[in-house]
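Contributing new records

If you add data, match the layout below exactly. Sequence lines come first and carry their own label; structure lines follow with theirs. Keep one chain per record. Anything else will be rejected by the validation script.
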Amino acid sequence: MSAGWNTIESDAGVFTYLIDNLGVKNVQFEELIALDADLLKQQSPVYGVIFLFKYPTGEKPSETPRDGDFDFDAAENLFFAAQTIQNACGTQALLSVLLNKEGEVEIGPQLKEFKEFTDAFPSELRGEALSNSELIRDVHNSFARSSPFIDEAQKMATEEDDVYHFIAYTPINGVLYEIDGLQPAPISHGVCSFEDFPDMVITVLQRRIERYPANEIRFNLLAMVRDLRIRAREIGDQDALYQEEQKRSGWQWENALRRHNFIGFIGEVLKGITGSKLKEGEEAYDKWIEDAKAKTKAHIAEKRKVGGDVEHPDA
């Protein structure tokens, strides 16, 4: 791990336990597999959504957003922080929802103190304060994949690089806001009640995705919702409660695996397998190598057909 901010995955289990470790109570994330307002409504109450997309590094800055309107006055009346450091945008996006929901969500004493401390700051200084928060950075980094090959150098992305970025959408004071720390102000998408949020945000996201080529599928959408176990207990749905508890156990297991470096273990396994193949003779060993190369090439070609994965550096 580096001393800065490391890349984290867009994953419901990662984000749920990240905010849990920051002291937030009774909130979780759910991945949405389709842009479906009815599906989003099933998770109600929905506090906001976190959207991951391929950032257009070659796009020139504009004085107006491509959709919606900059609301510079809102930047002073709600929590909005400029993004000042690479790889922090995932955590910054979820905080952009949480810190604007203090009356609806129990954000915990540490985040409440951070919000109060930065309340009078301009957005640039808020961003610096967030980037320099040891608590938030350490919790964020605890969910990064462990690797002995971390590149400490940070370089500016070019048009050829695949760079991904997290932003938030949430209803605040009767308005649907897009909160992106790389923009100069929150972006208003119009009047929006809490009840209308699922329909409105799905429409806004559909317009955004339509700006990409038809074969671009590398998007991810996470909904920030009330802990689903609470509703299961309220209505006495033991099956749903069991499923949610099992899901949490799976998330904890996956998060634990992320913290471990398996390079040494993999090396020992490969040495054992290679040794056993060599005992079968050189012809058997050479055939094994060629078969493995062919399978790898076929796997790479298949991934290229479907657009690859989303584990890339953040904007």
